[in-house]
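#struct-pred
JK: can someone run the complex with D-glutamic acid? inputs below
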Amino acid sequence: MHSPATPSGLIGVFDSGVGGLSVLRALRARLPGTPLLYLADSGYAPYGDRTVEDVAQRSALVIEHLLQQGACMVVIACNTATTLAIGDLRARWPQLPIVGVEPGVKPAVLHTRNGRIGVLATRRTIASERLQRLLQDHAAACEVTLQACPGLVDAIESGMLDEEGMFGLLGEFCGPLKAAQVDTVVLGCTHYPFVADTIQRWMGPDVLLVDTADAVAERTAAVWQGIATAPGGPGSTRLQTTGDPIVLSRLAARWLGMEQPAERVSL
Ligand code: DGL
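RT: done, structure tokens with the ligand placed:
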């Protein structure tokens, strides 16, 4: 039976793929003495094109795996899985602290000067009730342009596009936000911070891009303090993937400066 106070426990972090590395980066900075296990479900990415049932089922399988590996807390480093499944997952594991990541609508509303906000996210997140509720609760007074980005997660996962190729793909998604003259853009998918420079090129230097990775790390640290009974040691991060371990290792090295190789797991 899972115990949330397991002294030697670790924090399990997962995403549909490599995007959650943006959250992992913030967690490693905020909790340097904490063992972390990152699982990229790249064999089943993108979640944004899957059914709600599929995403819930994959997320549950991943959490079961993380618990078997010693997780006593889970961070869902994926907007799509959080949006579609966090309620069910919390109901299934009521003792397990689960922190999710959501599009940063609230910080965007606090920042905007002209009241025009753009949200970039996967199709599923854009179409979700949860995002609608976030907008109703916090952005009722703003003009919000929602933009789904089909194909973008695949392009980031594969790493096949060079800077100009990525610039071309992003034009399709940034164009409507430029036309709406937004001054703030929510990066509503954890893959997107890795192409933030290219999004910024499209939107111009005066537009703020909102990424919630630091806020998620702060929340995680607060919850972790309440349950961790072991003093922080040197800390270590393990990387696992249901896809190609070479891809995860390469991107973790490039984006986070990590040197350890990723392991492949089957779930
Ligand atoms: N990084 C995931 C997110 O934050 C991408 C989901 C997908 O695989 O479509 O939504």
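RT: quick notes.
The pocket of D-glutamic acid is lined by residues 15-17, 19, 45-48, 78-80, 122, 125, 153, 189-191 (CB under 6 Å).
The beta strands are 10-15, 36-40, 71-76, 98-100, 116-121, 143-148, 184-187, 208-210, 237-241, 263-264.
JK: thanks, will look after standup
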